[in-house]
Design goal:
- With 93 residues, the chain is of the alpha+beta class.
- The protein has one domain (4-83): RRM (RNA recognition motif) domain (Alpha-Beta Plaits, 2-Layer Sandwich), CATH 3.30.70.330.
- It has helices at 4-7, 15-20, 36-47, and strands at residues 8-11, 25-30, 51-59, 63-66, 69-72, 76-83.
- The strands form two sheets. The protein has a four-stranded antiparallel beta sheet. Strands 4-5 form a two-stranded antiparallel sheet.
- This is Large ribosomal subunit protein uL23.
- Belongs to the universal ribosomal protein uL23 family.
- InterPro entries: Nucleotide-bd_a/b_plait_sf, Ribosomal_uL23-like, Ribosomal_uL23/eL15/eS24_sf, Ribosomal_uL23_CS.
């Protein structure tokens, strides 16, 4: 089992994530090898909340060009975590 603090990379603050907050859903950038169970345990431990469900999406890297060379950014994994009613993550910090 992985270290719980290495599973979650960061809490994403995007326009989409702010629209999901009233629905008690939060977006996280997570380790590409992390499972839904590991993500659930990590969020519950780090943020001290109760998680209802976890959905994950593997995001492919984007094509980027620098002068005449083309390359790709790294692939990454996004987790959409739904919290139970009454739980909330403080995003002021």
């Amino acid at each position: 089992m992985k270290d719980l603090y290495s599973v979650i990379k960061n809490l994403m603050r995007t326009e989409k994530s702010t629209h999901l907050q009233p629905l008690n859903k939060y977006l996280f950038k997570v380790d590409t090898d992390a499972t839904k169970i590991e993500i659930k345990k990590a969020v519950e431990t780090v943020y001290k909340v109760k998680v209802d469900s976890v959905n994950t999406v593997n995001m492919p890297g984007k094509l980027k060009r620098v002068r005449y060379k083309a390359g790709y950014t790294s692939d990454w994994k996004k987790a959409i975590v739904t919290l139970k009613a009454g739980s909330k993550i403080d995003m002021t910090a």
